[in-house]
Predict the 3D structure of the following.
Amino acid sequence: MIGAHGEAVHHLVRRGVDATARFHNEHGDFEAVYQIPTGSLVVLGLTAVLGLVLLTSVRYTLWGVVATLAEIETPQHAYLVKEEKPAKDSEVSPEQDVAEAEVALVKQKPITAKIITTIQHIHKRAGFAARWRGLSLFIVYALAHGMLSGFIANLFGAFHYPDMGSVFLVKSVGSVIATITLARFSTAWVHIVISEPSSKAWFRRVPGLKSWKNVWASSAIVDITTRVAFTLPALCAVGLGLDPNGVQGQHPGMVIFKALVCIVIGLTAVVALVIPATVSLVRVQASMLPEEDEAIVPFDRTFGGKVVPEILGGSGAIGFVDAWKTLDIPARVRILKLFFKFVAVEIGLHAFVFTFLVAEAFILIRPEHFRKLLGQQG
């Protein structure tokens, strides 16, 4: 997440600088045409920063905390006793009345069925800051992953290859190696998110070296499937001629249709590959939660008896395939619904921040300045 935001900001800044330079060359001194007041720039800058913080915070809470809890929650069962009152004129002893009572096993509604109930639950159990639990370790992990994957990519000469395909392949290899290397830290983050509050520092919750063998392969699978899923739409776009040169001359309706095809392919890959792989990895990591740590949501540590403790000759963790198989259909549907809810929330929040920034800019920068700038450009 942090790497994606950083790359996007870098790209936008570079494009903005290039556009400014071109305008300056074509129209002379930009400041002579229009100069934004310093105060307005400061206000717009602070608003943009606050908007980015808000978007990042919500994304971490939803995709990090809420999603992880939903992937490991095991809804509890409750016994519902239904008694039928005997007729007034019937002679039924109390013992017969109890014996004939209906007993039904009812599965309680999951806490993570809704975003709001999940956040309310963790607030009640761990305080308001629970929505950002594990954030310090997440930042450390993201920075370490970025530096390590970049170092490995440079080691293989990623920036010396002439074609983008080779560069992407080398960077992907670096990312996979970094993910495998830091798998124990990712596991510690999952343990922090799913467990009750602990006084232990995050670095004391990193599992031992022996645990690495249980998560390295699963971590690699998630990294690879994620890259495949997000590469497919790009390949689709190139194959259908949606590059800047290929779009020219095509009917707008056909361009939109081709773009929708690529989007559908990307979403299908995410649903079919990324979500099952990510859910399985989180459940594998959760199965390694230490005995002294209690889960913050209902959670079956044994995964239906699939987890064999190390003391009994097992690995102490559930297998990658079994982690998905032990997730019943209602739970899969619940997680998929949350996924689309997250997407809707993000789209709505991005639209709100963008609209607010545009409205603020229109208020702070007077309309006549816009007309003057447009007139100079024309």
